Amino acid sequence: MLIGVSVNTIGNIERDVVQPSLPNLRKLAEILDRPIYYLGTFEEMPADTLGQKIRKARFYHGLLVTEAAEKFEVDIKSINNWETDRQVPSSKSINEVNNFISITYKDKAPK
């Protein structure tokens, strides 16, 4: 109960029956002393569009929408619009977004 969910829920997460919420993933990563991407719950997320890549990168980095908005100095609505491909990042943000989404998995092994 360290993360505030039941043993059954943990079992369902382990069997890929349910996806843990990002806050629960963050707690698990802390308890296990591993980076959030090590838990690998979002490797299968689609990454065909820019919006999908942004969302996947946000999960990979363990950021809530509010935290991503702070990081890119935009409002939450902008992040939601980017992730749903309703808008693209402005020229002011695009370089930082491109760096953010250039995720590499070569560093996934725990140190």
From TrEMBL:
Domain HTH cro/C1-type, residue spans: 2-39
Record-linked Pfam families: HTH_3
InterPro entries: Cro/C1-type_HTH (IPR001387), Lambda_DNA-bd_dom_sf (IPR010982)
Keywords: DNA-binding
Protein name listed in UniProt: HTH cro/C1-type domain-containing protein
